[in-house]
Amino acid sequence: MTVKLFAFTCGTVTGEFARLMEGGEGDITVPIPVFLIEHPKGRALFDTGLHPDCQHDPVGRLGPRLAELFRIGFRPGEEVSARLEAIDRDPGKIDLVINSHFHFDHVGGNALIPNATMLVQRREWDAGMDPDTAARRGFNPRDFGLAINCAWSMAITTCSPTARLPTHGHTPRRRSLRLRLDSGEVVLAADACYFCQTLRERRLPRNMHDREAMLASLDRLEALERGGARIFFGHDPEFWQTVPQAPVPIA
Ligand SMILES: [Zn+2]
């Protein structure tokens, strides 16, 4: 079965580099990636980017703390629904939204995908539903609380077009995604690994849920890479320049 993979850049975020990677200097502008997976059995998105309100009112959407930490670069036409429409894909005909985790730059566009089933790790959902944990982790329940259908990953693994890969540490329960393309295996690491340097030099972000778990996730990613998989880093601007953008598929 042929799986097609497309990448979209749904805006950028600029913030202090050292916050995202130990030893980073100055500020860094990172891409916000969204992936479309087309499988003979259906269409899925891996993450959905920012909420469209971030285009005109980031403080109102994200709150003053996050809006101060991160400057949002996000124009009309860059939201996930517009990106899909630009390549003639109907946002209403996406079957599955797979959220790697609940941070605002991964789940905000869920609101634009009306008919999909949302797929998230159970523990991440529980963390998001608990007001204290959500606030501590910087989750915004408005991003994901409207889930029309929500499936726990355990239940759906067997019928999912893709294979899950738990890579915890960044948040309580986050996932990367393994895909088998004609050209070989691809791992969409999301925030288990922001940058290429994160993997090569084990330079972790400043804030994380569990340092040991994140290091173990990186070991797992490295083992997959040694086995021939291509790792797609979560927010690496240099790496991202090498990724073909839709409508060109990732071969
Ligand atoms: Zn992120």
Describe the protein.
The chain is of the alpha/beta class. It contains twelve helices and eleven strands. The longest helix is centred in the last third of the chain and has 16 residues, at 211-226. The two termini are 15 Å apart. The model is unreliable at 152-162 (pLDDT under 50). Zinc ion binds at residues 103, 105-106, 191, 234-235.
How are the secondary structure elements laid out?
Blueprint: E1 4-16, H1 17-20, E2 27-39, E3 42-46, H2 58-62, H3 64-69, E4 71-73, H4 80-86, E5 96-98, H5 104-107, E6 117-120, H6 122-129, H7 131-137, H8 141-144, E7 149-152, H9 153-156, E8 163-166, E9 175-181, E10 184-190, H10 196-201, H11 211-226, E11 230-233, H12 237-240
Parallel strand pairs: 3-5, 5-6, 6-7, 10-11
Antiparallel strand pairs: 1-2, 1-4, 2-3, 8-9, 9-10
Zinc ion is lined by residues 103, 105-106, 191, 234-235.
